[in-house]
Amino acid sequence: MADHELPPIAEILIHTMKITRVIFCTVVSMLVAQSALAQSSATATARAGVVITSAERFVAPVGLPRPLPGAPTVLHGQNFKVTGPDSAWRDVSDISSIHPVVDTVWNLTNDSQSIYFSRSQHLGSSLSSSVCWGGLCYPKKDSVEVWTIPPLGSALLTLDLSATLNDVPDSGAVWLRVGVVGSPADTVQLYYTASYTPPDPPLVFLWSQPTQFEETFNGPGVDTLSNMLENYAARGIDYVLSYQALLPAGWSITKFDDTRQPYNPSNYQDTFTTGNTLVTNFSALPDTTYQQRLTFTLNVPTVTTEDSAVIYLSVHPQTSNPADSANYRFVMYVMPPASVATAPEERAGIAVTNAWPNPLVGNGTLHLEIQTDAGGASHATIYDLTGSEKGTLDLGSLHPGTNEIQVSAPNLPSGDYILRVTQGGLSSEVVRFNYVK
After folding, report:
1. CATH topology of domain 344-436
2. Which of 188, 169, 165, 168 is nearest to 177 (CA)?
């Protein structure tokens, strides 16, 4: 036998030691995960003023089987039951929608019951979940919350599953444990799965709506055309953006740049500009810097007749899939001053054409797409659905396009609200949004 060769028994011992090490590491990882889940659950229940015992918590099992449709689910605890849909599986490939799974929890006793849900999940980077229990909704994180159901009453337990645009398939599972507070044995476990299939072609970005691919400007001067580009890849990606412009004689594109959203004076751009090419990094959802405003600045020295600048933009994210790239056409029309003169009283007004994100979570930033030629101070008034005023936000100076509002409303409960913008004595129509505390 050569010096470097091992006898068969030594090879078996080494192989056995490797297997033992893998098993030991796996057990340690599971214990660490269970401890982290217990700590996060304890923190959540402390907010609710309720103690959930360790026996009432659970660690999610491994594996993602896809349940088949069948009869509606009915699960019984000792003092309650849960009735659910005929399938716990959801296809969440349509990213424009939230995909709910609605269960009803019934109190089977003649006494009020404090019923909790405990959530654990195993979701890919492009999938997320949120839960509405009773009359409140909770954001996209693992949580434990309690709702009191009156005697022989019921409450809805809704799991909302959603996905971001990604270029790879994904799947995941969410487990909800439902039980009576203080009765560890009186529980049931609900299991849900979700899958995501990329579109064809699997573009990893979208333009935020509304997008202005054509815009009209009045008279000579410096004009800007800007739109919001959003990275939906669920991971940070470098983008190469380049343009070609067809311009009348004497016109020029003086700047092509981007601005990270929300604007931060100390760190608002992570780009460099070389000629007509821009290289920029978009962070991943749900970080707000996944949005970046792209702006073309056009210089028009003179204009005597209607004319236009045509800009072709290439968007090329640095992925391994060529189908992720796309080209777009923008047109900036410029009118001579005399052809667009309009009496001020015919033009003055204000309109809010879009508000996002919706729902708005916590002390978030609400983006308002505004058209206005009114002047003076501006503010936004928030009302509930009965018309009762709930607060006023100072907006400062408004400008056409996207305006940002930092919503800080510690006394505003979760729910649906309407918002009206006022400037210079003129008011917009109301827009509706959902607020999650």
Report:
1. Immunoglobulin-like (2.60.40)
2. 188
Domain 205-340: give its CATH code. 2.60.40.10
What is the identity of the amino acid at 5? Answer: E
Query: In this structure, which amino acid lies at residue 234?
Result: A
Q: How many CA atoms lie within 13 A of 360 on its CB side?
A: 25
pLDDT, one tens digit per residue, over 248-268 is 989 999 888 888 776 666 655
How many helices and strands in the chain, by DSSP H and E? Answer: 2, 30
E strands, 168-236, where?
A: 170-180, 187-196, 205-207, 214-218, 221-231
Amino acid at the residue 289? T
Using DSSP, state whether 55 is helix, strand or coil.
Answer: helix
Q: pLDDT at position 40, please?
A: 37
Is the confidence at residue 33, as pLDDT, over 60? no
Residue 172 and residue 194 in contact, taking contact as beta carbons nearer than 8 Å: yes
Question: For residue 292, which phi and psi values (nearest 5 degrees)?
Answer: -140, 135
Say how far apart CA 323 and CA 334 lie, in whole Å. Answer: 34
Q: To 10 degrees, the CA torsion angle through 281, 282, 283, 285?
A: -170
Q: Summarize pLDDT for 382-404 with one digit per residue, the tens.
A: 888 777 788 888 887 777 777 77
Task: Show the 3-state SS of 233-268.
Answer: CCCCEEEEEEEEEECCCCCEEEEEEEEECCCCCCCC
**217/223 Cα distance (integer angstroms):** 7
**Which range is most confident: 87-101, 273-287, 366-380?**
87-101
Q: For the chain, what are the domain ranges?
A: 28-196, 205-340, 344-436
Helix (H, G, I), strand (E, B) or coil at 346: helix
How far is the C-alpha of 219 from the C-alpha of 216, rounded, in Å? 10
